[in-house]
Design goal:
Strand order of the largest sheet: 4-3-2-1-5
Number of domains: 2
Strand content: 15-25%
Shape: elongated
Largest sheet: 5 strands, mixed
Distance between the termini: 110 Å
Number of strands: 5
CATH topology of the largest domain: S16 Ribosomal Protein, Chain: A
CATH class of the largest domain: Alpha Beta
CATH architecture of the largest domain: 2-Layer Sandwich
Number of helices: 4
Order of helices and strands: EEEEHEHHH
Oligomer: single chain
Helix content: 40-55%
């Protein structure tokens, strides 16, 4: 039986959420699995990945083959790095102390990269909010200046002399006749 480490889809239509599972390669995507190894949520930025490190490492050492996406996830979490280092111990190239030292160093570097990315995302969000606020303020100031200019022009315009109502000539209204117009065709 060929065991695969792969994703099992869950969640709504446009909000996929995945379980990372060890399953028989012949089983359907969302079908039976041997063991659930963790979860993967690509809807967050950066993506949320929760894995059982020891069980996943055990499956890899026992010969389970990860799919391409799972390989990227396992690499991101350092499981493939740890497997590689442990394979070096089996061959006699490294000792367990060297493996732990190298893996701890790698984890610290990775944590630094992740935290800098999160900090960058937070700063970008704050900068975009500040830029929107500045643009809205500038737009508001421009409208206020335009309105002030219009009111200044109206106040400076010479006021036309008003004529008294009694002096204006009255317009006589002629009553409309309801009689139809005569047809003059001959």
């Amino acid at each position: 039986m060929a065991v695969k480490i792969r994703l099992q889809r869950h969640g709504k239509k446009d909000a996929a959420f995945f379980h990372v599972v060890a399953a028989d390669g012949r089983a359907p995507r969302d079908g039976a699995f041997i063991e659930k190894l963790g979860t993967y949520n690509p809807n967050t930025n950066p993506a949320t990945i929760d894995l059982n490190f020891e069980n996943t490492l055990k499956w890899l050492q026992d010969g389970a083959q990860p799919t391409d996406t799972c390989k990227a996830i396992l690499s991101y979490k350092g499981i493939l790095m740890k497997k590689h280092l442990l394979d070096g111990v089996k061959k006699g190239a490294l000792t367990l102390e060297q493996v732990e030292e190298q893996f701890a160093k790698w984890q610290n570097e990775k944590a630094g990269k992740i935290s800098s990315k999160k900090d960058g995302l937070i700063t970008d969000a704050k900068n975009s909010v500040a830029a929107k606020f500045k643009a809205e303020t500038a737009s508001k100031d421009a409208r206020t200046a335009k309105i002030a200019a219009k009111t200044a022009v109206i106040e400076e315009a010479p006021v036309a002399e008003e004529t008294p109502i009694a002096e204006t000539p009255a317009v006589e209204e002629t009553p409309a006749t309801d009689a139809p117009a005569e047809n003059t065709e001959a």
